[in-house]
Amino acid sequence: MQINLTGKNAMVCGSTKGIGNSIAMLYAKLGANVTLVARNGALLERIIRDLDTSMGQKHDFIAADFSKPEELKEKVLQKVHEPKVYHILVNNTGGPPAGLAIDAELHEYVAAFTNHLLCNQVLTQALMDGMRASGYGRIINIISTSVKVPLKGLGVSNTIRGAVGNWAKTLANELGPYGITVNNVLPGATATDRLKQIIEGKATKQNHSIDEVNKEMTDEIPLGRFASPEETAYAAAFLASEYAAYITGINLPVDGGRTPCL
Questions:
Q1: Per-residue pLDDT tens for 89-142?
Q2: Domain for residue 260, yes or no?
Q3: Which of 35, 139, 141, 259, by CA, is between 20 and 30 Å from 119?
Q4: Which DSSP string corresponds to 35-98?
């Protein structure tokens, strides 16, 4: 199979670093016109220059804060009204801080719910009509393996990721008749800044070295290593392609086999 996204417009959130950045880079390399979405406008301006344009792709960006869904909605609708039809939406944003669910303050749950589920809803509503009219729609949510098995010490994240997973499954049922697919990619331990923060936090709490925590975590992974962000991007590229037209409503772990259930 040769995945070709030429002529497709993709909006990729959280695209200044980590998994989101790898997805944006790969989509551009496969021919898509990419709209980057993140908070840091200056950084977005630099990153957009690194996106592949060898096939005539045209890229742009939206600088938006996901803690302000109404502001995000206004900026996204400006793009849609250019007019610009988006065929692919990648919902992705940084996870909530680590900590026990019982210790979390209410505002932590509200913030996570806003950043993840409410902004996903805003973006999907804004782009859905264009997908339906074009006859091509791919909504891909980058969540977590905690959708299947809650992860220790990530109480707020576990809770909100589960909500997003069920939201996505519901949407898959509702949007299926229009040929729009909705799927979740579930990254495991991936070599990103967030994983580094989690490891450092565990090392401090357990009074262990960074190397010890690294070993503890990789020992839980059958493949014996952390993923690279690019490996998650490959899964997102397949789900965005024509080859995934009959796949919808699924959770796809990219975790090296760590999740202890099917």
A1: 999 998 899 899 999 999 999 999 999 999 999 999 999 999 999 999 999 999
A2: no
A3: 259
A4: EEEES-HHHHHHHHTTS--TT----EEEE--TT-HHHHHHHHHHHHTTT---SEEEE--PPPPP
The answer to whether residues 212 and 119 belong to one domain is: no
Same domain, 175 and 149: yes
Tokens standing for residue 241: 């392609």
Tens digits of residue pLDDT in 150-171: 999 999 999 999 999 999 999 9
Phi/psi of residue 61, each to 5°? -150, 160
Distance between CA atoms of 190 and 21, rounded to whole angstroms? Answer: 13
- Give ∠ CA 200-101-182 in degrees, rounded to 5: 90
pLDDT-above-70 percentage for the chain:
100
Same domain, residue pair 219 and 232? no
Q: Whole-model pTM? A: 0.95
Cis amide leading into 83 (omega within 30): yes
Q: Is residue 1 in a domain?
A: no
Please tell me the total count of domains within the chain: 2
Q: Answer whether 23's CB lies under 8 Å from 236's CB.
A: yes
**Which H helix or E strand runs over 242?**
none
Our CA angle for 20, 230, 118, nearest 5°, is: 25
Q: Tokens in use for 207?
A: 């009074």
Whether residue 212 lies inside any domain: the answer is yes
